[in-house]
C-alpha cells in the first residue's frame, strides 16, 4: 500500500474531492461515495457529506487490521476496479466489515499518483443490491484522473514553495565569523560555509585547492617546485 502521509493536501482540494463524491453518489443513485487515501497501515476516507451515507459521511481514518475485510482495501491491494453486486451472496464478503456497516453493494476504482504509484481509490456504496451498470464506472475512472491531475498540481506547488523558501533563506544578512568563516544558522549553531549552503540550497560542493593555498601548503616542497618548473616550462613552449 502506498505511503501518502507526506502529501499535504490543501483544504480546497479536499472540498473539491468531497464535491466529486457527492456528484458520484447523486449520478449513481446511491447513498454513499468516498475517496479513500492509502496511508501506511490506515486508510483516510473523504466522505460525500450526505447524512444517509453514515458511517462514511465524513472524513475519518480507518486502521486496517489483519483479518478485516473492507471493499476498498481489495481495490488498493489489486490496483484493479471492483464491483460487488450483492455481498450477502458472496462467501468471501458476507462477513466483511463494510457489509456489517449496512452496505450490500460496492463499486471501486483505483486512483494513482502522477508517477504511477497508488494513491487510493474512489468508492460507491449501496444499501441494496446494485450491479452499477451504465457509465458509472467510466465516470469514476474519469474522476480518478481528475484527482491525479490535482495531485500533480499540488506536488508542483509544494516544490515551488520549497524553492522560494530556499531563495529567501539565502537573501539578506548572513552572520559569518570574521576569522574561521563559519556561518551561524537560525538556531545559533556555527557551521562550515559548505555545510550551511548545502542545507539551504541545491548547491553541492567538490573540494580542491586554489593556487594561493597550494603555494602556501606545498611551496617549500622539492617535488612541488619541480612540478611547477615543468609546468611553467610547458607554458613557455606553448606561447
Describe what you observe in this structure.
- A hairpin with a 5-residue loop joins strand 5 and strand 6.
- The protein has 2 domains: 11-160, 2-Layer Sandwich (Beta-Lactamase), CATH 3.30.450; 183-238, no CATH class.
- Helix 1 runs antiparallel to helix 4.
- The strands form 2 sheets. Strands 3-2-1-6-5-4 form a 6-stranded antiparallel β-sheet, sandwiched between helices. A two-stranded antiparallel sheet has the order 7-8.
- The model is unreliable at 1-5 (pLDDT under 50).
- The protein is elongated and about 90 Å long.
- The protein has 239 residues and is of the alpha+beta class.
- The protein is built from 7 helices and 8 strands.
- The longest helix has 34 residues, at 136-169.
Q: What can be said about this structure in brief?
A:
The chain has two domains: 150 residues, 2-Layer Sandwich (Beta-Lactamase), CATH 3.30.450.40; 56 residues, no CATH class.
Total domain units: 2
CATH topology group of the largest domain = Beta-Lactamase
Q: Which class of the largest domain in CATH terms?
A: Alpha Beta
Largest sheet: 6 strands, antiparallel
Strand arrangement within the widest β-sheet reads: 3-2-1-6-5-4
Structural class: alpha+beta
The helix count comes to: 7
Q: Give the end-to-end Cα distance, rounded to a whole number of Å.
A: 67 Å
Order of helices and strands: HEEEHEHEEHEEHHH
Strand content: 15-25%
In the CATH hierarchy, what is the architecture of the largest domain at level 2? 2-Layer Sandwich
